[in-house]
UniProtKB/TrEMBL annotation:
Protein name (database record): Uncharacterized protein YbaP (TraB family)
Pfam families assigned to the protein according to its UniProt record, in alphabetical order: TraB_PrgY_gumN
Species per Swiss-Prot/TrEMBL record: Massilia aurea
InterPro entries, alphabetized: TraB/PrgY/GumN_fam
Length: 393
């Protein structure tokens, strides 16, 4: 593996970005006890936290992205919302944002069964780089809860030695089949727009020209958000998990396991398959300015607990264009457990929530904001089962 390829491989030569398959939050990929945790939403987030941890990751995490500005994905009264300074593609990159006010975040949703309550805190990303968060209400709920219910997700655990044997097959997984470049796979009009945006946000990245449109879209989104001073909001999650650990809550995972027996064949098929992902890059380019313009406003709506504003979040078009391109790939035709992982992880979360509501006076849970509002999401499923759900004021 060349040094350039090593830099492009999301975790020391192994992780190719994250296929986020359910509804977790900021960190693109988590690792616990040597397992890969594939979180659910489909956010495009930074993985720098992964580089600082020991290399104990599974060999298969078919990377991708998708959705909320590619990061709807996690995180007041007080200072007014800071505006994101953005420009047209041909103008200089936007200035960075500096928001230093401490924000409490939204209130919590209450799922009730008698006098038992499941408290759900909604997460959001991206966030302005210097936004800080603290909620005494959340801290108090965690302190007095008996159990923490983690977001839906998936795990893959091929084992260390099998992981090592798969490393060679991961090289080049981001590239277009048959050595094609973006100018070969994109319509002329799309490539012209791509060239303009690339000159603005990725002027020194020549390697991206050889990558699939879906990965080019990922790189473009990350670069644009970095220029705008937006980050993934992992600090909020880290703070929450520290509170949970300090309170010694029982921690319940809702992850489902993904099979890795055919990992080598899956990677091979993925590398040679056509994803029909030009629409993913096209949609990303079309909504990039809107995404940057609205990202800080949405983050501040989250920070101030503006539920009405948060309900306006809608990433269905981009999610379908990007995540749909992957899930409809022929590479997954022989892996039904990969294709239906979202439904399986949701079912497991719902079952775990019902069990917690029956057993505990108070349970604390984390879900992404879009899953909370999703009419087909896990909260809607609990309402359909007859549970009483109260939104924050």
């Amino acid at each position: 593996m060349t040094r350039a390829e090593a830099r492009r491989a999301p975790v020391p030569g192994l992780l190719i970005r994250t296929l986020r398959l359910a509804y977790a939050f900021e960190s693109p990929c988590d690792r616990r006890d040597g397992r890969l945790i594939i979180g659910a939403r489909f956010w495009l987030l930074s993985q720098q936290d992964l580089f600082m941890r020991p290399l104990v990751v599974p060999a298969l995490c078919l990377s991708l992205l998708a959705a909320p500005g590619w990061a709807q994905s996690l995180d007041g009264a007080g200072a007014p919302p800071a505006a994101v300074v953005t420009t047209d593609a041909v103008e200089p990159a936007p200035e960075q944002i500096h928001v230093v006010a401490q924000r409490p975040g939204p209130g919590m949703w209450k799922v009730k069964k008698g006098d038992h309550v499941l408290w759900v805190f909604g997460t959001y990303a991206p966030l302005p780089k210097n936004m800080t968060w603290r909620s005494q209400q959340v801290e108090n709920v965690i302190k007095h809860s008996q159990e923490y219910l983690a977001p839906p997700g998936a795990t893959a655990k091929p084992g260390f030695f099998r992981m090592v044997t798969l490393l060679p097959s991961l090289i080049g997984v981001r590239k277009n089949p048959d050595g094609a470049q973006l100018r070969d796979v994109l319509p002329q009009e799309d490539y012209a727009q791509w060239s303009t945006l690339k000159a603005t946000y990725l002027p020194e990245n020549s390697d991206v020209e050889r990558e699939r449109p879906i990965f080019a879209a990922q790189a473009l989104t990350e670069a644009a958000r970095k220029e705008a001073g937006l980050v993934n909001g992992y600090a909020v999650r880290k703070q929450l998990l520290a509170l949970i650990k300090k309170s010694e809550l029982k921690q319940t995972s809702t992850e489902v396991e993904l099979p890795t027996d055919n990992a080598r064949a899956l990677i091979k098929n993925f590398k040679k398959s056509n994803l029909a992902d030009a629409a993913c890059l096209r949609t990303t380019m079309a909504t990039l300015k809107q995404d940057l313009d609205g990202a800080t406003a949405r983050a501040n709506a989250w920070a101030k607990g503006d539920v009405d504003e948060m309900r306006k979040l809608n990433y269905a078009e981009r999610e379908e264009a990007c995540f749909g391109a992957l899930m409809n790939s022929a590479a997954l035709d022989t892996e039904p457990e990969w294709k239906n992982v979202k439904a399986r992880s949701h079912a497991k979360w719902i079952a775990s929530a019902e069990k917690a509501l029956a057993a505990n006076a108070s349970t604390f849970a984390l879900l992404s904001m879009d899953d909370i509002f999703d009419p087909k999401g896990v909260i809607a499923a609990l309402v359909a089962k007859g549970y009483e759900v109260e939104s924050p004021e």
